[in-house]
Amino acid sequence: MPNTAVIATPVPTGAHTTVRTVVHRFRDRVASQPERPALRHHVDGEWKPLDWGQYGRAVDETAAGLITLGVERGDRVGLLSSNRPEWHIADLATLSVGAVTVPVYPTSSSSQVAYVLRDSGAKVCFVEGAEQLSKVLLHLEDLPKLEMLVGLTGLPGLDRESIMIDLGRLRSRGRMVLGATPDVVAERVALLESSDIATLVYTSGTTGAPKGAVLTHGNLEWTITAVESMVGLSPNDRLLSYLPLSHIAERIVSHVGQIVSGGETWFAQSLSTVPDDLRACRPTIFFAVPRVWQKFHDAILDQIAATPRPVRAIIERYLALGLAAVRADEGGPALTTGERRLHRGLDRTIGARLRHRLGLDQARLVVSAAAPIHPDLVRWFHALGLPIAEVWGQTEDCGPATINPPSAIKIGSVGVALPGLDVRVAEDGELFVRGGSVCAGYYGRDDATAEMIAPDGWMSTGDLGSIDDDGYVTITGRKKDLIINAAGKNISPSEIESRLALEPLIGQAVVVGDGRRYLVALLTLDPDDAADWAASHGAFADISNLVNDPQLRAVIAAGVERVNREHAPVEQIKQWRLLHEPFTVEGGELTPTMKVKRSVVIDLNADAVDEMYADDRR
């Protein structure tokens, strides 16, 4: 099938034909299984459950409380918090009264918070604790439409009842309303339509100011129905919520998906505790970004390196056989009967132990999304018995657009289109999508909406890719990131960057070369790997010192050379610079979803780039 053809998949029978929303699904769950655990969070050293009945009461009381604050259908309600049960409660309460949830990344600066609340015209904002509250108060005079702040974890030491109330008091007010008018929330729910706006999800802003993608109740329902038809969801499913709920991907997986499954969502204590939380939760579905998968890979290799030599040899033999089996599935040489038998035996023992140690021994679906992941890293996890299914999508199409079917994963691809979603490749290689998950546009940005969505419904994704004869989509890069060198050759930097990040000690990479004769790279050290290396080599662990260490630089140089040997001459890195600090959200180099802001990184390191091209100007 040529790349310019449209790949369309059938809509699941009976899907998307009636007015039904995630709010209706939630209320059905509460009614059908009130005593089953729904959410778990870590309190005083133990995982405390919140059952569906308690969850439902909390949502109804909060929703009724919002009504007492004068929240009407269509009003925007901000939600500034890390992942916690109250995030889910506040979101569902907002949706239940017909209002619009506006999530704000908790890592945002005060000016970024103010921008989202001002741009959306938020009337009320849920905030988590004093730190997030201070971000709003700092710009309160610039937020004329903001009438009330609701503290999810209380507002200690602050007494401004005219503009602040904590969640406990809001729920108390809601209980009083429900006592007098029991159907006040149900009546609002009955008014919900598929075309109603459910949420404004602001883009991460890799280029330019963030824009609010308008996602309707119909978009959410369409998407989760399509996802469910491909992967199946069950009340026995467990999910660990740790990536920002402000991003639509995590929200679809551990919030909306959990409601549809009827299973449990566990809330990680923090990013640093995710390994421990995984072992406690043992999720059946686990979603991670490539950076997390890379960290898991490195941690396992470190553990293997620390085992006694005889045991290490067995583990390495197991992984080698696993990789050979993966290659065989991709058309490589088949394993012998003896090798297959040995691999099965080692997988039941060594493999099972490694998966158990990671906390993924009960996972039936493991997913990578949000950024490119190198196929070699995916192959390694397949060899470990954890077949990563890469997924692709955007905020503007409600998260997932394509998924690798769990039983038919094609490594290197991002899978096939969701049922009912059309995908096509334009003449310049850009991917376009059309279907029920495509947003209604950008809030208050008619010009940007018209640029993104054509009158016939096709949405520009900004990603470059191809579609094979089986309908599998492969992403080759971002259209805006495409490097055109001095000779007019088009080079996509994403694959080179993800391959560099697989090398020892390298944390992040940005490849530069637009309009130049050759490519150069800005590299950062992985802080954990660098600290381990320093400890084993008697060096100072401070990264600013390590970047100049001759031995460490030799390791980096060898890694860059390995990557170069895998690429054509025009795609090879001629020079590189180690930066003194990793890219961070706080430093402005990363978006809240950990995507690198390439232009920001290049601008901040313009002197280093110019220095690497000094010879090019002679």
List strands and helices in order, with pairings.
Blueprint: E1 6-8, H1 22-32, E2 37-43, E3 46-51, H2 52-68, E4 76-80, H3 85-96, E5 100-104, H4 110-120, E6 124-127, H5 129-137, E7 148-151, E8 164-166, H6 167-180, H7 184-190, E9 197-202, E10 212-216, H8 217-231, E11 238-241, H9 248-261, E12 264-267, H10 274-281, E13 285-288, H11 290-305, H12 309-329, H13 337-358, E14 365-368, H14 375-383, E15 388-392, E16 402-403, E17 416-417, E18 422-425, E19 430-434, H15 446-452, E20 459-467, E21 473-478, E22 483-484, E23 490-491, H16 493-500, E24 506-512, E25 519-525, H17 527-537, H18 543-546, H19 550-565, E26 573-578, H20 598-604, H21 606-612
Parallel strand pairs: 2-12, 4-5, 4-6, 6-7, 7-8, 11-12, 13-14, 14-15, 25-26
Antiparallel strand pairs: 1-18, 2-3, 9-10, 15-16, 16-17, 18-19, 19-20, 20-21, 22-23, 24-25
Helix pairs in contact: 1-2, 2-3, 2-6, 4-5, 12-13, 12-14
